[in-house]
Amino acid sequence: MRYNTLSDHSYVYEIPILMIDDQPLWLGITQDGWDHSHGETRSRWAYTFATGPYDADVQLQGDDVSGPAAGPDPDPSDMAATVMGFYSAFAGGDLTHPDTSEHSAWEPGEAVLEYENDVIATGEAAEFIVANGERFGMTASELENGYIAYTDEYLNETLGQNVFRAEPTGREDE
Predict the structure, then answer these.
(1) Global confidence as pTM
(2) Per-residue pLDDT at 103
(3) pLDDT tens-digit series, residues 53-72
(4) d(CA 157, CA 153)
(5) Which of 57, 81, 123, 165 is the most buried if burial means most Cβ atoms within 10 Å?
(6) Which residue stretches of the chain have pLDDT < 50?
């Protein structure tokens, strides 16, 4: 993967806290080519969830998000909402710590997160997804419903780069 830290991404989004003791969390997003399947061309995106600016702060990465949920060429902030929505759903999967491993991909006793019979993540990444699922879901829902929008870009001193912050839009429930 070419995107090792948040600084490698084109867009970085601050994920709002739900509780006062939530750790800072950011999502880096970069358009990373195109998928050509089923007669359609869609943007493919890489992403990084991180708690800070360094390699050791990276919690979860991927470079394969595309598909109908994101549309053919979504705005990066829409893609951020889609990624958070996916991981919110995955957090509702089954987190286990099996005593034996059916696969060589994880060690016995290591956390394994399964969703609809697919292994989504193992180890610390699995624990991270489950621990932050509600936060991802709330943020994605508020973005998708237009209650907040990533409109405020500021220089984040901790990261040493520009970051988008979600701001209330003033939209109210109908």
Answers:
(1) 0.88
(2) 60
(3) 999 999 999 887 765 555 66
(4) 13
(5) 81
(6) none
Please state, in angstroms and rounded to a whole number, the distance separating the CA atoms of residues 140 and 120.
Answer: 19
Q: Is 88 helix (H, G, I), strand (E, B) or coil?
A: helix
Measured CA to CA in angstroms, residue 68 lies from 23, 42, 44 at distances of: 32, 8, 11
Q: What's the half-sphere exposure (Cβ side, CA atoms, 13 Å) at 162? A: 7
CB atoms within 10 A of CB 105: 11
Say which residue the tokens 């003791």 belong to.
Answer: 21
Query: What's the pLDDT at 158?
Result: 92
Residue 86: predicted pLDDT? 92
| Distance from C-alpha of 7 to C-alpha of 19, rounded to nearest angstrom | 26
SS3 content of the chain, % helix, strand, coil (to 5): 25, 35, 40
Count CA atoms within 13 Å of residue 155 on its CB side. 2
- In this predicted structure, what is the pLDDT of residue 98? 82
How many Cα atoms sit within 13 Å of 46 on the Cβ side?
15
